[in-house]
Amino acid sequence: MVTDVRLGKEIHCFVLRRGFVEDVFVENALISFYSKCLGVGYARKLFNIMRERDVVTWNSMIAGYAQAGFFKECKELYREMVALPGFKPNAVTVLIVLQACMQSQDLVFGMEVHRFVVDNKVELDVLVCNALIGLYAKCGSLDYARELFDEMSEKDEVTYGAIISGYMAHGVVDKGMELFREMKSRALSTWNAVISGLVQNNRHEGAVDLVREMQGLGFKPNAVTLSSVLPALSYFSNLKGGKEMHGFAVKNGNTGNYAIMANLYSRAGKWKEADEDTSNENALGIYAMLGGFSGLMKEEGNVLENLAKVAVYG
């Protein structure tokens, strides 16, 4: 990154020396560079002194704010752009601002952008529709999201993923699963999103079943899959399912879940297995054993019996 910044500064000095500073294409590239490497403050200074700005200029600056998390400034600049006479945001502008609205969960501003799209006949291609569905779904306006979804003639995995994630996030699990089953092709990220959604909605057995199903279809669970499902198994003492997932994790080199499994064994009263599991990751494992042990003491109310178990298994 340091090398990139130094190179960018050298290029800027070259641009100044050669007199290219007022070339709008060069300045647009510099705005993007400054936003990513030096901060949006530098980019905005250049933006403010530019004599000529085109749609790419505005999009670059708006995107710089959005990517840096300055959502308020992103929206304000979009409104400035809309107000310009004879100048109109394009589909790229809309995508950038809708993403900012989704990340900041600003439904009201997102609906304003949607109205602009309709009023100005901005093409509702799959990318714009996906962004709108993602916004409405994340903000809980599931009826709007579903209406847009049903009206789309062309849908991709992102389309399905956006509305399914919305359903899962807001507890409408059955509708989310219906759409998941409707999909003709599913990426690993889609499987992970649904598994995570099931766990969040306390559908733990369903999550484990889905992991088994994805393996049967040739998908290999990754660290995201396992980190989604293992904590739920630990909390609910599903020892059989947890051992199955842990075995798969170890076999495939995802060995970062020792603490979870030690806690799982402890909650199930399998103190010897918990102790064996801690041999791989002592500090985390012991911490998890203590967590499981204290949980059992609270649940069973038999301190002496649990102390005896620890004494027997070391």
UniProtKB/TrEMBL annotation:
PPR repeats lie at residues 54-84, 125-155, 156-186, 187-221. Gene3D superfamilies: Tetratricopeptide repeat domain. Transmembrane segments: none annotated. GO terms for molecular function: RNA binding. GO terms for biological process: RNA modification. Pfam families: PPR, PPR_2. Keywords: Repeat. PANTHER family: DYW DOMAIN-CONTAINING PROTEIN (PTHR24015:SF553), OS07G0578800 PROTEIN-RELATED (PTHR24015). This is Pentatricopeptide repeat-containing protein. It comes from Salix udensis.
